[in-house]
Amino acid sequence: MNIKISIAAALAASLLTMGAARADTPIYKWVDDKGQVHYSTEPHSGQAQQLEIKNSGTLPNPGDAPPPGTPAAPASPANDAKLVAPKPEDSPACKAGRDRLFKYLHADSLYQLDDKGNKQPLPPAEKQKALDEARAYIVQACGGDA
Predict the structure, then answer these.
(1) How far, in Å, are 63, 106, 107, 134 from residue 125 at the CA level?
(2) Residue 30, SS3 per DSSP
(3) Which residues does 140 contact at the CB level (< 8 Å), separation at least 6?
(4) What are the tens digits of pLDDT across the range 8-23?
(5) In the chain, where does DSSP find H-type helix?
(6) 44, 107, 116, 132: least CB-packed within 10 angstroms?
(7) CA quadruple 133, 25, 109, 122: dihedral positive or negative?
(8) Residue 41: what pLDDT?
(9) Model confidence over 31-78: pLDDT tens digits?
(10) Of residues 67, 63, 82, 65, the one with CA closest to residue 130
(11) Contact predicate 112/120, CB 8 Å
(12) Range 101-112 average pLDDT
């Protein structure tokens, strides 16, 4: 077996294992003394605010969606592992996109809220669309080499 494929498969398996623990982890946002916005699973400041993240099966803000025609990154365990891997130079939008895709990939199911606030599981085609939109968002927000 090709060593690169073996490494990619091992990385994907480890991400799947980690996802179960991270699926419901709260995300905090705060601004440091220099005005830099930070996101973390730990509240590093007394001013940190826990973000309420609702999984609607789509990107949270239509204005944040990639422009029409933005190609989604190819779906594969190795490429998804690359897309969710954080980089030091990531912008907040890029970090949020990576986190969103990570959560989508590791969720038992994706859902949207109906008009009464009840969770309705997304059908497979809609789930795939949400994953493709999340991948395209990362390509757009993080740059072509994501």
Answers:
(1) 23, 17, 16, 14
(2) strand
(3) 66, 67, 70
(4) 555 555 555 444 444 5
(5) 3-22, 77-84, 92-106, 124-142
(6) 116
(7) negative
(8) 76
(9) 778 877 777 777 777 777 776 665 444 444 434 555 555 556 667 788
(10) 65
(11) yes
(12) 87
Structure tokens at 60: 């949270």
Amino acid identity of residue 67, one-letter, is P
Q: Which residue has the tokens 């990107």?
A: 59
Length of the chain: 146
- What's at 7, amino acid-wise? I
Q: Which residue carries 């025609």 as its tokens?
A: 69
Q: Which of 144, 142, 140 is nearest to 67 (CA)?
A: 140
On whether the CB atoms of residues 14 and 84 are closer than 8 A, the answer is no
